[in-house]
Amino acid sequence: MINKDAVEQSNDAARAQLAADYDALGGHLERRGIDIDAVKAKVATYGVAVPSWGVGTGGTRFARFPGPGEPRDIFDKLDDCGVIQQLTNATPSVSLHIPWDAQPAADLIAKAEEVGLRFDAMNSNTFQDQPDQAHSYKFGSLSHVDAATRQQAVDHNIACIELGEQIGSKALTIWVGDGSNFPGQTNFTRQFERYLDAAREVYGALPADWTLLTEHKMYEPAFYSTVVQDWGTNLLIAQQLGDKAKCLVDLGHHAPNVNIEMIVARLTQFGKLGGFHFNDSKYGDDDLDTGSIDPYRLFLVFNELVESAERPDFDPMHMLDQSHNVTDPIESLMTSAMEVQRAYAQALLVDRTALKGFQEDNDALMATTTLKQGFRTDVEPILAMARLEAGCAIDPIAAYRAAGYRAKVAAERPALSGAGGGIV
Amino acid sequence: MINKDAVEQSNDAARAQLAADYDALGGHLERRGIDIDAVKAKVATYGVAVPSWGVGTGGTRFARFPGPGEPRDIFDKLDDCGVIQQLTNATPSVSLHIPWDAQPAADLIAKAEEVGLRFDAMNSNTFQDQPDQAHSYKFGSLSHVDAATRQQAVDHNIACIELGEQIGSKALTIWVGDGSNFPGQTNFTRQFERYLDAAREVYGALPADWTLLTEHKMYEPAFYSTVVQDWGTNLLIAQQLGDKAKCLVDLGHHAPNVNIEMIVARLTQFGKLGGFHFNDSKYGDDDLDTGSIDPYRLFLVFNELVESAERPDFDPMHMLDQSHNVTDPIESLMTSAMEVQRAYAQALLVDRTALKGFQEDNDALMATTTLKQGFRTDVEPILAMARLEAGCAIDPIAAYRAAGYRAKVAAERPALSGAGGGIV
Amino acid sequence: MINKDAVEQSNDAARAQLAADYDALGGHLERRGIDIDAVKAKVATYGVAVPSWGVGTGGTRFARFPGPGEPRDIFDKLDDCGVIQQLTNATPSVSLHIPWDAQPAADLIAKAEEVGLRFDAMNSNTFQDQPDQAHSYKFGSLSHVDAATRQQAVDHNIACIELGEQIGSKALTIWVGDGSNFPGQTNFTRQFERYLDAAREVYGALPADWTLLTEHKMYEPAFYSTVVQDWGTNLLIAQQLGDKAKCLVDLGHHAPNVNIEMIVARLTQFGKLGGFHFNDSKYGDDDLDTGSIDPYRLFLVFNELVESAERPDFDPMHMLDQSHNVTDPIESLMTSAMEVQRAYAQALLVDRTALKGFQEDNDALMATTTLKQGFRTDVEPILAMARLEAGCAIDPIAAYRAAGYRAKVAAERPALSGAGGGIV
Amino acid sequence: MINKDAVEQSNDAARAQLAADYDALGGHLERRGIDIDAVKAKVATYGVAVPSWGVGTGGTRFARFPGPGEPRDIFDKLDDCGVIQQLTNATPSVSLHIPWDAQPAADLIAKAEEVGLRFDAMNSNTFQDQPDQAHSYKFGSLSHVDAATRQQAVDHNIACIELGEQIGSKALTIWVGDGSNFPGQTNFTRQFERYLDAAREVYGALPADWTLLTEHKMYEPAFYSTVVQDWGTNLLIAQQLGDKAKCLVDLGHHAPNVNIEMIVARLTQFGKLGGFHFNDSKYGDDDLDTGSIDPYRLFLVFNELVESAERPDFDPMHMLDQSHNVTDPIESLMTSAMEVQRAYAQALLVDRTALKGFQEDNDALMATTTLKQGFRTDVEPILAMARLEAGCAIDPIAAYRAAGYRAKVAAERPALSGAGGGIV
Predict the structure, then answer these.
(1) What is the CB-side half-sphere exposure of residue C338 using CA atoms within 13 A?
(2) What is d(CA A39, CA A348) in angstroms, rounded to the nearest whole number?
(3) Chain B residue numbers touching D20 (CB-CB < 8 A)
(4) To the nearest whole angstrom, how far is the Cα of D182 from the nearest Cα of chain A?
(5) What is the DSSP letter of C64?
């Protein structure tokens, strides 16, 4: 973890400036009729889960370029995740990917306690073959034509639930790459029937207080069709399985130009919004840092969430899901968690009474201006003050760099070589 | 209508060549184990509805360039549609758009009988304001914030049903342009609630043997959000309304890259595929001639339809919906109807037993090759022979041109001027 | 024009709050080492041209819903444009569209002086047919297969230059809709050769101090191919014609997902960036209000412009080009002009020395954070103070509404009826 | 290689049917005024290069699922490529990727002679790090900020030329993944200047009779910007470097909806079309089998090539570039090579005199119908007869399977395990 003195030192350099900025913003918000401290209080309790796999360097099918100090296992990963939470207070939980992170529950719990984290949703993996696996997922998993392969995938998902139960998780997220690369390769209907049958088995093994999150994705790794290709199919799954089944929305898994915030609204309206994988993208499932490409889109998603906050039983799960190919993953995750907080804070600033009035008057210009006023506000002082008051860093990147954490773990963790080969 | 002698004369010029081509193809198909006459028989009974508005020249917001002999009213339009059916035998029915085509039922019936046509689905219009209209649809129709405007839209749809009942239609198609141009302009959820309430009223007025078809579209005329933006929302509507409510798929109304044939499969699987608007597109809702841009995509849609042909209660409606900006609309509609027939005939040729086997073996290459063998076959002789045997034209375009129909109606129908102004 | 007292009254209500906000922001920027007054000074001299056609209500091929007080001619339009400049000081010039705005030069000049405006680039129109036109543009204009049609289009462009010279314009913008709707309809190469030949004729008529701006667009009104479909073809045109020929970038004229700011950089690097049509879009050429959908993209474009500001002979023209379908066009144009100013002000705040350093260190995270810090800053007080000091409105929308301008012109200008017909 | 008897046996089973089909098609074409033997003769001399890396199973960042008998090195790969050519006569040459295929020239030449192949363009690789590499390409290669890294990339390209010269290649293809993942990460202009400087060095090392092919790609592996992002930038490169520099078009490297055949026409018109990487795609750079998704698009590209065939100095290089994730790569490459031949044969059938006439008459409908008549024709008998007459297989897939080649090499080449890990 990061040395507390390093954090303090970093904060000392910025404390006075933050106080001035916070006061200035507070004054401005007061003139808009908003209590800055109330906003700060909400931000302070907001958290987004970190994916365990996110602290390793990502890559593409062409290559992966590891950085120094790559985590060797889930325990190293939890160390890294602990740093993110220590400096930002924005990421209180970690989401595990099985079998990558499969370890004895007691060890996982102990390590999580040590680094001050909880466990978020469990993630199963039936898009890769493991060395000792009986049946290959080359042609699918839950929707495979072969019953034994489907059963293997079902069993793996149930094993994920079982481990999750031991470590305090309350949800299983299923993403499958099943689909096809050629017209005619699969029969769409029979494939989806098989998927539903298998998913029902997994659903049947779900504890009463768990949620099953299914995730849609337009394409990749399948390049002609994907069995859960969009929110329409995802909704059908959740409807077919039952009340504990809900839809997970990954911001990068849609067709070009799609209005994602509207999908969020629809799923919310029908009680089927289960959670998010936050990231950003320009082209496909680019898995870029949240808010790095289109921050207004992120804000518009949070606008829907704040709008629906008072709905009964509305409590979608929030997780980052990114691939950090050219940055220090810890830095990207800290920045992204803060971007999520930023969008949330901005959405909290929207004058919803005024907005509703403009909507009812068909005053499109003032409605959109009202929304944008929230987005336009620089809420950084609110986020920074919430961090400072939680004992974290005003400027987490600066503190992290000053503390030399990366160099320290690089010295402990062997450099990866030959990992840059890629798959073309 | 077209002079029968002109058709005969045109056919005489091509008859021998067709016979030779038909025999050659018959021999080839026999070697593949397919009876050409059986395919021809199926094609001969296939029909796609023509949209009444399709026989006028279309345009864009920038301009419209009318051609000679533009139809002046629904009776002129029915004349033109009659020609299409006379020459192709592929378009036995016409779909009306109200109020554009609103005329006394008896007159419509009489004219339809005269030109040998039936009436397909009725189409309502709440995306434009009519001169004498009490409430404007500028900010929406069925989903408008104002109850009186919604009621006006509901009443209009019910009036469409009533006229439809008198003329033998069995379906109402609703497409609304409702949506928004700015983030925040509308509340997605409340807007959709209003839409559903209004649609329920229309549904309530539906005769027992009618179908309500709702049509989704990603964008245009609304450019930020559209209330029925995709098949997911369309499915929710059909689910909420009841068994007589189904989804209409327009091939040009989807996001870029979307797998449309898969949407067709999903809606079919859950009993909600109601019908099609056929056309083709490269960029957006281009409304180009069916099969003119991506004929394989059209074939893949028909592959799904043939695959599902034996499902109980599976009988989606087929209609062309195109904008003919640079061609003679009659020629485009004849060609497009034949393209739809072509895709159907090609899909009939697929060896489905072999295909299923390859799918079960995960033999992607042979599965896709099997599918493509159907597409690759030049079925023109089958279509032409079916036309000839029905007393139509072997080459409808040649016959139409030879008959001089366009010149004749141009002499009767005044040229439109000043219609090219456009809306920028 | 707007009554000055109304503006004063509106300003009085906001003056104290603005002073406080400006001071607060000034303090914050000072802590970042930035002099707020220097930024304000730059913003105060920045202007974007208004399109004359933008003050009328726009529409789609489906319908147009006019608002009250639609301008009847260019003189009404100049009145409306004068209001925009009076309240914002951000739009000192107007761009005319010929023949829509063709009037005697003396009258145009007199009216422009009256309302305090200059004339920006001239726009020709060969995408519509005019009532008295010898040759139709249905199948193209500058690239038409028929020489006489091409000559007519050339002559029209030269006439635009001649009128422009008389009223002080220094540029001609050519956008043509030429293309095709079907594969095979045109020969791409011969069509482009014809375009180049015709464009050379227009270029030959260009005064020495004029610029010829050609505009690319992916599609619409042509839906299979467009002769100037992208910046690559646009660049070829500018290269072929000569030094006075440059490329105009409309933000809405690109393929989905395209990195527009990079195109701006490439054209700049090779001396061929001629100007902009600012607007925003989510799907196609939606012509939505600038900055309303993706404000960060607008900022990234301005980041390129500020980055290149010191290049010799770098002076692209800036114009809004939007379609206002659901808002008061004056309000949309004021808001959009301010959004352009906002992006400019934000780009001025970027610490370019730090940015360059991070780029050279491959410190992607700090580079993007540095850029975003500029974007994140709420520069509204700078824009508002610049307006106030220029005698304009702190809140132009509020002032405009308070002044009752729309109601006043609605009383003078007859309501349009029957204009909502649309082209489907 | 494949046992000749197995091929003969396979051919015997199909010979009579082919003769009948060929005669039937010949008769049909004769009725259209086309000499089938002349078309066959052209097809018989047509060839497309095979990529050495294409005979291994591809994958995605998520996983790779190897098949049996994966080639271990370039010699195994050449064996596999030899089989493709032996059975199809459509792939007379192989394109090497360095350093993957770097071996002594004499050994390469000997092996190529053994399997009856020539060497097509050389491909350099600066998108991955090799184990012994001094400088990493994590942040770019030819455009890297660091001069030593750029030099390393330049030197590697020159080494590729040197090896290529020894083995009879006449072209170097450069594709770099250089770009950025974050706005601000790179300065677009300086990055492109560096690219051009480095490319000039490579160009300087080019033998007089060589061509330098540069390849553009919209995105992946870089997800915000790519230095050679589109044909516009690619054209600038070719213009800056000189006459021996031309543009390579990979069908999968464009923005959604882009009209690729038009890009082909533009590059041809300005003498800069250097060659192709054929494949197909639905979403991004999916690298699917050529013609498997949109065969009409492939035909439209070949329509341009046949249209330009008489241009002086027009001789673009043709290569397949695909990723075979779920099929036997040899089968996919054989099928794809035949699809390229098919598109070529179909384009040869177009009545170009008629087409030109319709274009000049603005007869869009007949122009597109004329084009499509070529596409619609089932030319399989022509391709098969050309193969048979060249001593190859009427049905290469059937012959290949019957010969048991895959099982044979699977027995010789060790199964890959642990290769399915993927990069997420």
Answers:
(1) 27
(2) 7
(3) 27-28, 31
(4) 7
(5) B
Burial D377-392 (b: 16+ CB within 10 A, else e): bbbbbbbbbbbbeeeb
> Which chain C residues are closer than 8 Å to D353 by Cβ?
none
Sheet holding D93-97, edge to edge: D50-51, D93-97, D118-123, D171-174, D211-215, D245-250, D273-278, D317-320
Give pLDDT, residue C346. 98
Residue type, B35: D
Spatial distance between the Cα atoms of A373 and A370, rounded to a whole number of angstroms: 5
- Tell me the shortest Cα–Cα distance from C380 to chain D, in angstroms: 23
Q: How many CB pairs under 8 A join B and C?
A: 150
Q: Looking at the domain assignment, is residue A73 inside a domain?
A: yes
The predicted complex's ipTM stands at: 0.97
pLDDT in tens, D157-176: 999 999 999 999 999 999 99
Nearest CB neighbour to D24, from listed B27, B259, B380:
B27
- pTM for the whole structure: 0.98
| Cβ <8 Å between C420 and B128 | yes
Q: Whole-angstrom Cα distance, residue D74 to residue D64?
A: 20
First to last CA, chain A: 37
Chain A positions touching D421 (Cβ under 8 A) are: 128
Q: What is the DSSP letter of B89?
A: S
Q: Residue B230's closest CA among A307, A291, A267, A92?
A: A267
Spatial contact of D362 and C143, defined as CB atoms under 8 Å apart: no
Q: Which residues of B touch C292 (CB under 8 A)?
A: 182-183, 224
Inter-chain residue contact B182 with A307, CB threshold 8 Å: no
For A335, the domain range is: 47-343
Sorted by sequence, the CB contacts under 8 Å of residue A210 that are 6+ apart come out as A161, A164, A170, A171, A172, A244
Neighbouring chains of D at 3+ CB pairs within 8 Å?
Answer: A, B, C
Query: Contact A291/A339 with Cβ under 8 angstroms?
Result: yes
Asked if C101 and B166 count as a contact pair (C-beta separation under 8 A), the reply is: no
In a domain, residue A408? The reply is no
Report the CATH number at residue D202: 3.20.20.150
**Residues in chain D closer than 8 A to C218 (CB atoms):** 257-258
Q: How far is CA A248 from the centre of its chain?
A: 10
Q: Is residue D263 in a domain?
A: yes
Angstrom distance (rounded) from CA A134 to CA B362:
17
B374-396 exposure pattern, b = at least 16 Cβ within 10 A, e = fewer:
bbbbbbbbbbbbbbbeeebbbbb
Helix, strand and coil percent figures for chain B, each rounded to 5: 50, 10, 40
C208 to B190, C161, C203, C268, D29: CA distances (angstroms): 58, 12, 10, 21, 59
Determine, for residues D220 and A183 on separate chains, whether the beta-carbon distance falls below 8 Å: no
Q: Do D221 and A325 touch (CB under 8 A)?
A: yes
Contact at CB, A25 and C20, closer than 8 angstroms: no
Show residues of chain C in contact with D235, CB under 8 Å: 232, 235-236
CB-CB under 8 Å, C326 with B62: no
B417: pLDDT strictly greater than 80 = no
On the question of a cis peptide bond just before residue A256, with omega within 30 degrees of 0, the verdict is no
Question: What is the residue-averaged pLDDT of chain C?
Answer: 97
Whether the bond into B99 is cis, omega within 30 of 0: yes
| Number of domains chain D contains | 1
Residue D315 half-sphere exposure toward CB, CA atoms < 13 A = 8
- Contact: B359, A235; criterion CB under 8 Å: no
Look-up of token digits 């390769």: A185
Q: Please give the residue of chain B at the shortest CA–CA distance from A297.
A: B183
**Assigned domain for C187 exists:** yes
- Work out the pLDDT band at A422, boundaries 50, 70, 90: low
Write out the H or E segment, with its range, that includes residue A359. Answer: helix A352-360
Q: Strand order of the sheet with strand B273-278? A: B50-51, B93-97, B118-123, B171-174, B211-215, B245-250, B273-278, B317-320
pLDDT at D243: 98
